[in-house]
Amino acid sequence: MERTRISTHIILICGAMFMTLPVWIAFATSTHAPETILREGLQFWPGGNFLKTYKEVLFVEGGVMKKVTAITMLKNSLILGIGFAVGKVIVSMLAAYAIVYFRFRFAVPLFWVIFMTLLLPLEVRIIPSYKVVADLGLLDTQAGLIIPLIASATGTFFFRQFFRSVPDELLEAARLDGATAWGFFKDILVPLSKTMIAAILIIMFVVGWNQYLWPLIMTTKEENYTLVIGIKQIYQVLSEGGEIPQFQKAFAMTILATLPPVLVVLIFQNWFVKGLVESEK
Amino acid sequence: MKRVQFEHSPIPYLFVAPQIIIIVIFFLWPAGQAVYQSFLLEDAFGLSSRFVWFRNYSDTIFSRAWLQAFNFTIIFSMLVTFLSLGLALLLAVKANEVIRGASTYKTMLMWAYAIAPPVAGLMGNLMFNPLIGDLYSLMNAIGFDFDHKLQAADASFVVVLISVWKQVSVNFIFFLAGLQGIPKSVNEASILDCKSSFRRFWTITFPLLAPTTFFLMVINITYAFFETFGIIDTTTQGAPGGATTTLVFKVFQDGFRGADIGGSSAQSVVLMLLVLGLTVIQFRFIEKKVHY
Amino acid sequence: MSSVTLKDVRKTYPNGAEAIRGVDMDIKSGELIVFVGPSGCGKSTLLRMVAGLEGISGGDISIGERLINDVSPSERDVAMVFQNYALYPHMSVRGNMSYGLKNRKMPKAEIDQKVNDAAKMLKIDAFLERQPNQLSGGQRQRVAMGRAIVREPSVFLFDEPLSNLDAKLRVQMRIEIKKLQRRMNVTSIYVTHDQTEAMTLADRLAVINEGRVEQMGAPMELYTNPKTLFVASFIGAPAINLIPVTFDGQTLNNGPLELSGFTGLPENTDLVLGIRPDVMDKNPSGQFEMRVDLVERHGGETLIYGALSNAVDNQGEELEICLKGDKEMLPELDEKLQLGFDPSTAFVFRKDTGERLI
Questions:
Q1: Structural domain boundaries of chain A?
Q2: pTM of the full structure
Q3: Do the interacting molecules here have an ipTM over 0.85?
Q4: What does CATH list as the number for A58-279?
Q5: Which helix (H) or strand (E) element contains residue B279?
Q6: Which residues of C touch B (CB under 8 A)?
Q7: Could you read off the pLDDT of A192-240 as tens digits, one per residue?
């Protein structure tokens, strides 16, 4: 019962290697000079160019128009990630509260409307969404970037499931204590949901940070690019050839684009899994 | 719904308003627009448009390019779903068995959830790059005449590989949770009843994982249909010759690059209906059987 | 039908904790042995070692003539009933009961026969096609037992099977289990923390404390002849009254309280006097007096709780004792009762080792 077989460990080690090696190699390669990379291919061991490369990538203007640094893009990504996460949590909690705790005339149809958005992600209505945002004058703005993304109902769903699991007695006791609807929400439900809120914040931060298609089409100026979009630019520059392809910078960018969400996920790993699984039911 | 609820209050409308307003402006309205525009044909300069009924639909749906994208999307989704589910299940089962090093393994297997598809795509792309990519050389060394820029099968291979790679993490997390949701005593009872661990897995563990598997299937198909856009855009761009173009990639291509708003909108609508149909099928026919 | 033999069985966890510290036991074929003890004493661990669900760190376990230390659980010919039933949620009752036999390649007709017979015996034949989540707790319990019975194993193992049932059902099922075991005459090991279950079910009882068997024997033997303080206080409901005393050569003393009738005890050592609630009686010339604090009328008998006058417990507080009286006894609160007991019915233990001296 207690002796785990060698084969189990072998399988797990292979799996772990499969999942982590590519990123390690990306990192290691990013710390070498471009000439080395061209000559020898991908690197397994870190090289000596770590500071030089990353400093360049972060602070020196790059990109097609040479107007944006990784630091700027990092900032944009952070704003997107945090803004999206916070916005999502607030909007979803309010909506979920309304649906679960109130009997009102349009509750059921509204619920189905919200449910529908789960099925149809942004990619399906990408062009008209672009047009709407452009018409509202929100292209190249943070608001235009973040708000349309909140239209998907995943957050509302998670909170709905969670609220449904809160015992009815709590509400009954609160009403006996004279709590208003807002009071119950503010003083009891929200504190109770702390773990859930944290989990959703983390998940949504990662989702927001990793947005690709939407920022791609609605940011036209390079200084508004997020890190993840910057990846696309690298790809284009690489495909064009010209001088020595700066592979080390490409890899450095991928590492920068990956690091924050991965760190967030790793640090809050336990909360994360608990929050996801509780809402699956 | 809750047994105990508030009644007669304007508050619910207030609370649900932000979500609904955003949905109306940024979901319903654009979705409606997409449907509307699918019936229009714009002139070359985008200055005026004509109402052409279903011509956009027939033009695009029956075009070779669209059918190719349709086929590829279906096959691609099936491959990515089954491969990443299978791999993740295997890893989850094994990870559930170990005691020593359990948390290290789990961390290493879980983290890839956080990486963005396009980033994974670019990394993969670089690794298959003819100039520096070890994987490129490896494939050629094994004996494949590998060139993912020119050969459809190789390009598909690259895209499938990267897509599966990224999705294994998510599936792993949920499978692991599902496995841990099976009561330990049920597991022990099966140990007393059945000698072969292989048989135990298929007759006890796997059936009890059915709800998780179903849930993940829905998630994976959605992933393969839509989120893989980022991977395709940073690797093959749908090449060669449309061989790795998924339906959603084609919508983007035709709409933003080809400026064919009408056709692209028609494709969007068809895609919407396709996904809705798939979801209905999944929920209607499979979901009931999966719960015990 | 087989005997079960344990020889110096030990279990140590990787972190060094010793769960089982050398247990020897000879269980005869057809016996119903109960492992009883407080939470964490190791009784479940011991049971699971017999089942093969926990490994053995030292010693030997044999079923019949066969040493089973390294035999896999499904090949030990044991069947187990779990505390939370552990039914396979996705299979019907019939499926649950047939699963083990199917895996052993029994022909279908034979399996059906055995399942139907067992179901009839347990009165669950009406539920054979239902799923576990459609059954009540008691019904699930029977299915769990049915699953064990159809296997016709050498040994039945029960891991606190009645803990999750309500009180009335528990009593009912207890009786059924005893009858069933008698009828099938299969060697059984039953784990419980409930001493009533232990006393009523066991042919022999093993009181386990901190990984060791303190005493093993017939229930009444343990009741009338406990070897240690632990056994005396664990067995018997209501629990035995314990009075800290010392011996001065003549009498047992606790403060001003003096009790005579005891000889041969060590002086200047902390001792504990144990008197069962049912061996005391109202007696105007009795040895001590009790102030009534609480009267519990249980219908057929009355339990009277109160403080022993002139005596103190280990913390220097009032010493609580319990008297079991018949249903006519109805003292008033705060009434003082004079109680007497026959010294030969009392036990005296050493406080440090728990060893029984008288």
A1: 58-279
A2: 0.83
A3: no
A4: 1.10.3720.10
A5: helix B261-281
A6: 51-53, 72-75, 78-80, 82-90, 99-100, 103, 131, 133, 147
A7: 888 888 888 888 998 899 988 888 888 887 778 888 888 777 777 766 6
